Sequence to fold (223 residues):
Amino acid sequence: MGLVATITGGVVFGLALAAPPGPMNAVIAEESALRGWAAGFRAGLGAMVADACFLVLALLGAVAVVERTPALRTAMVAVGGLLMLYFAADAARAAGTFVGDGVEPTGESKGFRKAFVLAITNPYQIIFWLTVGVGLLEPGRLDVLAPLPAVGDRVAGAFVVETGSPALLGGLFGGIGLWIVGFPATIAVARRRVEGAAQVIAWLSAAVLAAFGLLFLWDALPV
Fold:
């Protein structure tokens, strides 16, 4: 397979991983809606930096302890859930104090830190990099479109690339980079063109964070 096809496969895979709704995109959307594109981009950068850290640690074998220690994984899920609830309350407060485009809510933008902390305490993200992420550097095959929500099963097998090339991993981070540039830009445009969009997006982001926080806490409960 050619280099261009490999990189393209990585980009598409990165976009497929980054695009689905979740805590990271909720933070990006909140920051973009209330503070503009730059704040949303910084939030996305926080999540991407965490992914880069996980990749390095996974290659070194340092994060494998999470996979081997169920108690630690459960504790991380619980901590992640509590953090999401805390950030959901913060997003709701910011939405409540937002009075219009160009007027910042009280407090500085903390999107980078919020996204980084949420990502770095997420054991599911760690396990991804221990398995799929590191596996991208080993010879094999990758079904690029399979991770897509709702339609993944229907498009499975439509775009399969060979793994084992660093170019594939570079493409993956390129796809994530495209998302953290384009998604905040879309939210920022909606903020400018649709009256009241900023508050609606911020409230929806708070709801998504709260829902995932409760889901994480439920998952952390003993069976």
User: Anything to note?
Assistant: The chain has ten helices and two strands. Strands lie at 140-143, 160-163. The radius of gyration is 18 Å.
